[in-house]
Amino acid sequence: MNTLNATHDPKLRSWVASANEAGSDFPIQNLPFGRFSHSPDSTPRIGVAIGDRILDLRKAGLIDTDDMNALMAASPGKRAALRALISQGLAEGSARQSEWEAALVSQSAATMHVPCRIGDYTDFYTSVHHATTVGKQFRPDNPLLPNYKWVPIGYHGRASSIGVSGGSFKRPRGQTKAVDADIPSFGPSKRLDFELELGWFIGEGNPQGEPIDMEGAESHLFGVALFNDWSARDIQGWEYQPLGPFLSKNFASTLSPWMVTMEALAPFRAPFERVSDDPQPLPYLDSPANRAQGALSITLEVLLQTAKMRDAGEAPVRLSGTNTTRAAYWTPAQLVAHHTVNGCNLQPGDLLGSGTLSGPNADEAGSLMELTGSGKQPVVLANGEQRAFLEDGDTLILRGWCESPGTVRIGLGECSGTVVAS
Fold first, then answer.
1. Where residue 355 sits, what CATH number does that domain have?
2. Based on the domain organization, do 144 and 107 belong to the same domain?
3. Looking at the whole model, is its pTM more than 0.70?
4. Which one of 5, 68, 132, 220 is separated from 183 by 20 to 30 angstroms, measured CA to CA?
5. pLDDT at position 401, please?
6. Which three-class secondary structure string do you get for the chain?
7. Is 338 a residue of the active site?
8. What is the mean pLDDT of residues 89-96?
9. Among residues 129, 130, 338, 339, which one is catalytic?
10. Containing domain of residue 372, as a range?
């Protein structure tokens, strides 16, 4: 696991003034990676966010490629060395300032892209609170299946429909069946929902047939982004047995544009703990390092802006929020170890979704299905509007950040998407 070094020094400041502003998501202690271009049609380039700017790494002479996946495949040592060079060059008093100023681009003037080429996408189910609440709605007598506390549950999703923050998607259509109906019907989803998730990116891969053990699992993780796996709950309820989600999930997912690296997350480690009544992980999902600091403390929140609010110039309103230490039952390392224990080969750029992250309290729900009791108790917004599920024109926003005493706050940016009519 990553250890603290000079790049995490809370006294470190940048010659990019906006990076030193209180509350900035992208101080010099963060340095997340993403892909940007000067226009939607130009070739994406690799950049690092610093304040309200982007450092073009190739123009700064730090890399010789525009292939993010190739950069992600580098060894942890090489990635750490690159982070150190970027940090040194952006620090106050750096001799690189005059040279690198020409390599800066305003974030507001850039077109952002999905952070890397995603070959495969697996969505996990790491929040026991979400699993229990949703399970009660689908299976009132048996909400949490017996394998949940033993196995990191997951399913393979659709990588081709993952888009970047700021975009829109059409309301999905599909087959649904009402409880009191004799036959199913077809049409637009009436129970469209969001899912508050994190997306963990694979860096260096593993050969097929060679599992990744817990001791080495985190060396195969590159970083994390905010992730919204939009879900059509009415389609899901009809199709999910016996093989799980399909058309209810694969129509659209949204990622924030910046991958916050595992190195940047080092100051925000937390112990991995299980309550005494729960089963302890099997040996292949356990290690002293994971127990000591395998969890990560990331604060998350969900906001909504309706079309009516947007037209009136009203800001988004907060729906819920939680922290990963309260919401996640499995650590990122455990997801990697379990995914590969059968010999599955992961590749640079593969995405592991955390699954909906919900805390134990009602206001920590990571979906409208939980917040509204499956639509029975709509949320009343500040302007008087109500939402049981998402309506056309709604913009859903995810935000995330890390902070703890003695550290500089770092952020994950923003993950937003807008629903339009089918």
1. 3.90.850.10
2. no
3. yes
4. 132
5. 98
6. CCCCCHHHCCCCCECCHHHHCCCCCCCCCCCCEEEEECCCCCCCEEEEEECCEEEECCCCCCCCCCCHHHHHCCCHHHHHHHHHHHHHHHECCCCCHHHHHHHEEEHHHCEEECCCCCCCEEEECCCHHHHHHHHHHHCCCCCCCCCCCCCCCEEECCHHHEEECCEEEECCEEEECCCCCCCCEEEECCCEECCEEEEEEECCCCCCCCCCCHHHHHHHEEEEEEEECCEEHHHHHHHCCCCCCCCCCCCCEEECCCEEECCCCHHHEECCCCCCCCCCCCHHHCCHHHHHHCEECCEEEEEEECHHHHHCCCCCEEEEEEEHHHHCCCCHHHHHHHHHCCCCCCCCCCEEECCCCCCCCHHHCCCHHHHCCCCCCCEECCCCCEECCCCCCCEEEEEEEECCCCCCCEEEEEEEEEEECC
7. no
8. 98
9. 130
10. 121-420
